[in-house]
Records
---
Amino acid sequence: MARGYGQYCPLSLAVEVLGGRWTILVVSRLIDGCRRFNDIHRGVPRMSATLLAQRLAELEHAGILVRQPLPDGRGHEYLLTEAGRELEPLIMDLAVWGQRWARDMTTDDLDPGFLVWSMHQRLNTKAMPPGRTVIEFEFTGAPSDLRRFWLVNTEGVVEMCLKHPGFEVDLRVMADLRRFVEAWRGFRSLREEIGAGAIRLEGPSELRRALPDWLQLSALAPYPRCRPGAEQDLAVGTA
């Protein structure tokens, strides 16, 4: 728990709860619908499991979530309380501010695991073929052990895989990690990057053409970049 500020101000009291490292991101994963420990952890892949357990306990103590046994008795799930749900518009507004005004990304910020986890929540499964579709992603510029990921859509249920899922791959997506993140955040045009060959696709032509319809970009992509810098320059170029 963050140390107190010695202030009765409600803002300082709120920051005591939410100001710890990773805390707001953990709440955001709960808002995204993650309920089990491992699902939450996948949404904050650079956070240690020990620290995640600590933050969840702190949020439970603060009344932001409740921890309850799963119906089958195997493990627990974490559910937001009314106090936790009230944070949703505040966190979304903060994320929008970050899209518009936070610093430009550095190489250290390019987390491929978080990127693919985010994409698994943003697939337009209604536009995808019936049955099962397997998409493989390979990112250059990422650590050697974090270059390949898979998204498996089975009748509208999307699973993110860190290892080959054992099914035939229908579409391969290959790109430089930074360039793909820039497209994901809306600073570059995904269609133009594919058309120019910067994002390369391997698979049947109908699936290659359909990928931009399947992959909804970050929910923050529509918000224009306002901070001067390289990312704003890219975004202006796509306008």
---
Amino acid sequence: MDTTLVLVRHGESEWNKLNLFTGWKDVELTEQGVVEAHRAGRLLRAEGVKFDIAFTSVLKRANNTLDIILQELGQTGLETIRHQALNERDYGDLTGLNKDDARERWGEDQVLVWRRSFDVPPPAGESLKDTAARVLPYYEAQIRPKLLPGKSVIIAAHGNSLRALLMQLENLTPEQILKVNIATGVPLVYTLDAHQSVLRKSELV
């Protein structure tokens, strides 16, 4: 029997809407973000997915997205494990800054390096490589053992923590992952074989 693993980035947050670097700042979903979360839940329900366990970060935009999805699935009592290892990348000194203002302050090229390089962190923050260094050991120790044949697992998290997971699941290089964007509120459904290799991937839109 195959295993189902669903990755979903939280719905649009207040700081996404304002074009601010968010990182570990604990901000709310926008009305649009709530709509996106409900839609994600309905799409998963239409696929007939029922989850055995859920994982999420400790940030409320991911928690609330997961809660709404589980509400749509009629699974509000599902076992849910929250851990900061799944938090968004820490943007350090960029946190709270408008991305356009950051470009004016440091220059477009420098901000692009901080945002899109694999291993160059912003001041006092994390690179994608740093983010992967906490996400992947947690995945191996806590999530992977739950990916048993016939089981379904959902991870509701953030753009960069999910990109770190996606990089491993799809065997992408550091260069390839830099071109990957994960949309808010769009479930990525992976079908895994008994060895936890990806058989199929679908994006529910």
---
Amino acid sequence: MNIGIDVDGVLTDIQGFNLRHAPHFFKKKYNRSVVDKNPFDIRDIFKCPENEYLAYWNKYLLKYVTLEPARKDAKAVIKKLRNEGHKIYIITKRVHVCKDNFLGKLMRFLMKNWLWRNGIKYDDIVFCDNDIPDSKRAVCLAKKIDVMIDDEIVNIEAISPIAKVICFDTSYNQNCKGKNIFCAKSFEKIYSIIKKCHDLKD
């Protein structure tokens, strides 16, 4: 099968990263506290304006994209899937990766370097436009993705009519349910769901 895997929120725990770093940053710099720790977006967590949001990521983006580790068992499960003959497609909407300038080239390089350093091997990587909400849908159609693993509701809802989607279970996507949508809290659970999907396909 062709398996698509998201990066931010799936291969990494971006919510965990933000909850480790953002409270101190916003308290010290803007005297803000967490309003709701469950939303996907920093702006909703702190009810902060765009300039504060950008200031946070200007400080922490490089740390996140270089040092945040891959989730537990991600490397082992992906290796097992490839050994079993599945094709792995990294499909990401990470900020800036589609820009045709130095920043875009740097972000694409850092992404590939991060995957290499974390031992995550893949058959292809596709960078999607972060400004287009459902940009991953077209990629899944073009790559004939059978199963997509994602955490963001807008992606899951756009892809589930055309492929099976495994929703990586987080506090910000608890209401994401429907046909072709499965939930998993670990890469071991992801593996078991993919195995069942493959067995049913055969």
